[in-house]
Design a protein that fits this description.
This protein has about 220 residues and is of the alpha/beta class. The chain has eight helices and eight strands. The chain has an eight-stranded parallel β-sheet. The longest helix is centred in the C-terminal third of the chain and has 14 residues, at about 155-165. The radius of gyration is 16 Å and the shape is globular. It binds D-xylitol-5-phosphate and zinc ion (ZN).
Length: about 220
């Protein structure tokens, strides 16, 4: 079993010191930059868009894991490929033709991710699981950092793990929302391969150490 992927969410970074916070992640044991793009329509919040993602990409030395919380994400697949996204994740709830969207993401050379809201059952992914590189299980309702972890997530991770094994798929399971050192070991035990952490990392006294601790508890 390989070590868990740790993806700090820049939504919790200090936007007035973004370069400093990006360098911190560069110098830490983190694996990916998690980048939350919100449109104020799919979720009740607006975060940041292309110019900021471009600026992040200029300094980030690790893969960009872009989480699109937007309606009709197909319109922007090419743009995010050009901005250097390594993983492009769209929401199941925002895609009418998910199979087509997944192929379009992969055709641009990116890994294809699908995020599911807390109310969305994992069983809805069964027919496309082999086409998905990463499933992002939302463990809070998307839109804001710093929310409380939803306990039902463990069950969803286990169900998804079973589906992946049954289908001989190579899909990674990523968990997003309310992740901390307390729940990280149980999430990994349930089957999570990647953990997103925003406030837990950036509000801590020593974020590099906090990332290191997360990495350690999940080996
Ligand atoms: C929520 C975002 C998360 C968020 C996580 O809509 O998708 O990535 O930044 O933040 P924390 O870890 O603070 O819950
Ligand atoms: Zn996210």
């Amino acid at each position: 079993m390989s070590a868990t992927i740790i993806a700090p969410s820049l939504l919790a970074a200090d936007f007035a010191n973004l370069q400093r916070d990006i360098e911190m992640v560069n110098n830490s044991e983190a694996d990916w930059f998690h980048i939350d793009v919100m449109d104020g329509v799919f979720v009740p919040n607006i975060s940041y868009g292309m110019p900021v993602v471009k600026a992040i990409g200029k300094h980030a030395k690790k893969p960009l894991d872009v989480h699109l919380m937007i309606v009709d994400p197909d319109r922007y697949i090419k743009d995010f490929a050009e901005l250097g996204a390594a993983v492009l994740t769209v929401h199941y709830e925002a895609c009418t033709h998910l199979h087509r969207t997944l192929q379009a993401i992969k055709a641009e050379g990116m890994k294809a991710g699908v995020a599911i809201n807390p109310h969305t059952p994992v069983s809805l992914l069964e027919e496309v699981i082999k086409d998905i590189d990463v499933v992002l299980i939302m463990s809070v309702n998307p839109g804001f950092g710093g929310q409380k972890f939803i306990e039902n997530t463990y069950k969803k991770i286990q169900q998804l793990k079973e589906m992946i094994l049954n289908n001989n798929a190579e899909t990674l399971i990523e968990v997003d929302g309310g992740v901390n050192a307390g729940n990280a070991p149980s999430l990994v035990e349930a089957g999570a391969d990647a953990l997103v952490a925003g406030n837990f990392v950036f509000s801590s006294e020593d974020p590099i150490q906090t990332i290191g601790n997360l990495k350690e508890v999940t080996v």
